[in-house]
Amino acid sequence: MTIHKTIFAAAALSASALAATPHANAQSAMDQGYNSLPSYDGQDLELLVDQNGTHFALWSPQAQDVRVNLYRDGRNYGSNYYVDMTKDEHGVWRGSSRKDLTGWFYTFSVLHDGKWLEETPGVWAKAVGINGKRAAIIDFAKTNPEGWEKDHGPELKSYTDAIIYEMHHRDFSVHPSSGIANKGKFLALTEKGTVNGSGIATGIDHLKELGVTHIHILPSFDYNSVDETNLPANTYNWGYDPVNYNAPEGSYSTNPSDPATRVREMKEMVKAAHDAGLGVIMDVVYNHTAVNDDSNFSLTAPGYYYRHRPDGSYSDASGCGNETASEREQMRNFIVNSVKYWAKEYHIDGFRFDLMAIHDIETMNRVARELHAINPNIIIYGEGWTAGDSPLPVAQRALKDHAYQMPGVAVFSDDIRDAVKGHYSREDDPGFATGKHGNEETVKIGIVGATAHPQVDYSKGNNSKKPYAKSASQVINYVSCHDDLCLTDKLYRSMPGSTEADRQRAARLAQTIVFTSQGTPFMFNGEEVFRSKKLVHNSYNRPDSINAIDWSLLDKNADQYKYYRNLIALRKAHPAFRMSDASEIARNLVFDNVKEPGVISYSLKNHANSDPAAEIKVIFNGNTKPVTVKVPKGKWTIVAEDGRIDPAGLGESRGGTLTVPATSALILTR
Ligand code: CA
What is the pTM of this model? Predict the structure, then answer.
């Protein structure tokens, strides 16, 4: 996600490796003290408006006094209006006004250790003014788009039926070639009929045409790094620096000063996606905050929400200066109630947890349980690793290796990612799809969705040494995301002397492996048009010139785009690629015994998962030369061959000894 993460995060250290690492495991005495504080799971925290007036309630069990400051404005002008608060049960301070304060802004001030702390909008601000400094009292009913009562996202039988497209609001729409008016805004996705310079669909129409089922939006809660008072500066950031977890980011709205506009436009974005048949997944970053002592957590209940080292300093498993403490009851309540809030108020269809292993297993299971009680179609997945060591014992961490303890949660497969395209940070390291031998068994771990399979030898896995998924629905397969080199750039670095045509061919093979594997496929925005990030790894704060997708590539790389569309269509046409149950995969997915290195061949048999085809034969040749393979004789339909793909068929084959051209997939059905 952010500055330091790429150094450690994607390494996905196994639990055993971490256990062998000396770390500051013991909880600090200070942290142990927090465990005895009362917690409160009520839904009325911080602000509640009813017929009797406006009610404030701040959880701050160690405060000596708390007051509410009221303002007419989101940033300027001081206040002459206060609401006094008194300590109630469960560590909660309460105060009320009989007035209707709609349209006002507020902050809390906490007296701690004899000192008044800086003002804070609290941790539960659902609407905020510019730069998120003050919370706002608005009428949420008035922020709902037309038809919101009937709005809902796509239904999902299994996570494996989802096809996830990871996008940043600016990357997607800010380039002049997008033809989109609301560049870099939530509203970009509400614009239908947009086209590039030669009339080819962009925006939401493009996503519909591509065929993905869910868009995963990079952090869209209120984050720190873009100054909302100076939007003409066009500052870019991924947004992994949280400020207000429960309010939308201002720079993506057309008017960050108006709290209701921020909320309404984000809802309009969700509604437009739903109307187009797409789900919306939010990237959530509960594992750390943008700042330490001045965060809303710290100014509300100093120390409580974070883990510390024995010397009292902030521990830092996020690589961003601090880490939160999900094992502590009020932090756990916060995470659970926050995602539930987004699911209910904004109709969000899924959550991607940044550095999920900083959180504990119990928290993630509660997240899954309570979200699925609201909406069983919600997808939950995360990075099953940390970016540094943590005081949280390894056994409690929501690590990739512990996925089997979290049946409702999926984890990113760094196995398939690094095996197919090469190591994520060693730029020149090639992978299976670019001619490297030795990664075959790790690619097979990806193909079976990291489930136990009798023909996969996990001891030969590059990253994981044992199956970690109970079902394939617990695995997100991918070869690139916002982190590190995008696929186009990775191929450029790892295929010296290659032509662009060679690299596009390798990209097709790499993504064909991902999109035919068991598990949920995930792709990075713009890869369907072979976008580049100009060889920049960690582009989190780089300008639009690096990050924006140039949609004239729809013309230049029209064939590449067509391949992606057909690849997605192929996956959708064949449920056999979308099994979830591990025993079904073990029974129906049969690898062929291939001696040639750099080649993988397997069949999906028995009309797997009610597939119309009795058998699908999938063969990948990662070598830079053609190979021959043996396929049972019979009447086959060719659906992928030599860098082309078409679910309706490219021709017929009688099987026997077949040639698979260099760097390509051969897929046959019967
Ligand atoms: Ca912000």
Answer: 0.96
